Amino acid sequence: NQTPPTIPAADLPTGPLAILGGGPAEIPLTNLLLTRPDRNNYTFISDGWPVILDHIFASPALMAHFVAADALHFNVAYPDIYQSDPSTACRVSDHDPLEARFNFSQDASFP
């Protein structure tokens, strides 16, 4: 019983919902950012504290090819003044984007 590759991403301000863990009839999803044992896992600054609001998940079919995930810190770590500076891409959002890397060999196949 194979499932198709799935990679949902979302801004979940109240945290990942329990349903994303996969109930009896659901595909279990892995929160990729939480695979990093890194204290720099944050995507937003709330009242001066770094928090994870943005998440990227992968289905088991993709986890077989998962390499790494990162939060790309070029927004929240910079002061708000950069928002109005057209000469830089820093601080174009109040959230940091997420990146997930996968290794798909030529023999990779999906259902």
List descriptors:
1 helix; 4% helix; 3-stranded antiparallel beta sheet; single chain; mainly beta; 111 residues; 7 strands; two-stranded antiparallel ribbon
How would you concisely characterize the structure shown here?
The protein has 111 residues and is mostly beta strands.
Describe the protein in words.
The strands form three sheets. The protein has a three-stranded antiparallel β-sheet. By secondary structure, the chain is mainly beta. The chain is built from one helix and seven strands, in the order E-E-E-E-E-H-E-E. The longest helix is centred in the middle third of the chain and has 4 residues, at 60-63. The model has no long low-confidence stretch (mean pLDDT 78). The chain has one helix spanning 60-63; strands spanning 9-11, 30-31, 44-46, 49-51, 54-58, 66-71, 98-102. The protein is 4% helix and 24% strand.
Average pLDDT taken over every residue = 78
Taken in chain order, the helices and strands follow as: EEEEEHEE
Largest sheet: 3 strands, antiparallel
DSSP strand tally: 7
Strand content: 15-25%
Uncertain regions spanning at least 5 consecutive residues:
none
The order of strands across the largest sheet is: 1-5-2
Helix percent band: under 10%
Helix count, DSSP H or I runs of 4 or more residues: 1
The span between the termini is 9 Å
Shape: elongated
Structural class: mainly beta
Instruction: Characterize the quaternary organization of these chains.
Output: single chain
Radius of gyration: 16 Å
